[in-house]
């Protein structure tokens, strides 16, 4: 297995007290596989990614328990140098906002080339050639002429392609993309997702796709982990999850996707808001919002029940949920 997160716990201290941002998350992604991690903001999906990348520092977060295995070796206990090399060269992250991730006063070609100068000891000339090649890889038109352009001279979609190029530069084994298309309009979103999927297949990388939008990941993902209040509530192959969700939260998310055949009808939206992570409700943390909650749900924490050999759901009533 390329990457395995095992029983990860991450805590923050906030003005409200101790915040359990990640509360026992386990997931895995293999080479050539795409795992989508789906959840509302505050579900812990980004914090888990930050823990993997070692960038948990703002606000100060602490991994209080768990393992993060990269090809079987725990990143949390290995030597500093080995960890730095894996995170710097074998993993890359793509963020939502390319404008704030790129340096506004340096040409994009220079920033791409820097990867090769710093990590591969390439010369100016070599790194420029490599930058142009990367820009062509992510299909930026007229790459050779545009290698000296600055970030603001590119459209949002093109800037996101540059971020993908930057992530690909060292041919990592794993890419984590956190809401990579959220800032883009719908048609450009689809183009960027297609490009990312295509390159992921070509390079046989593992891809973790973090999103709040189930619609965006439908075609790209193999497996989906749905997160709520710092936990995984459903984990399933994408087709199975779409056809028959096994958790009321997933069901609500699916029913919230705009669909052409339901035009004009009100979208089902899950009532209420995600909980304050300093005060996670007892029992099933989803119970205040759950349309089928029973008395038991406010008391008993649901374990991850095995729904099928490759699926699980943290709902006491998953059979009822999947059944109709
Ligand atoms: Fe709803 Fe209860 Fe299932 Fe939680 S355990 S999702 S509250 S039915
Ligand atoms: Mg986020």
From TrEMBL:
Localization in the cell: Cell membrane
Secretion signal, residue range per the UniProt entry: none
Keyword line: ATP-binding, Cell membrane, Membrane, Nucleotide-binding, Transport
Membrane topology: Peripheral membrane protein
InterPro entries: AAA+_ATPase, ABC_Ni/Peptide_Import, ABC_transporter-like_ATP-bd, ABC_transporter-like_CS, Oligopep_ABC_C, P-loop_NTPase
CDD domains documented for this protein: ABC_NikE_OppD_transporters
NCBIfam families reported for this sequence: oligo_HPY
Protein name per the record: Oligopeptide transport system ATP-binding protein
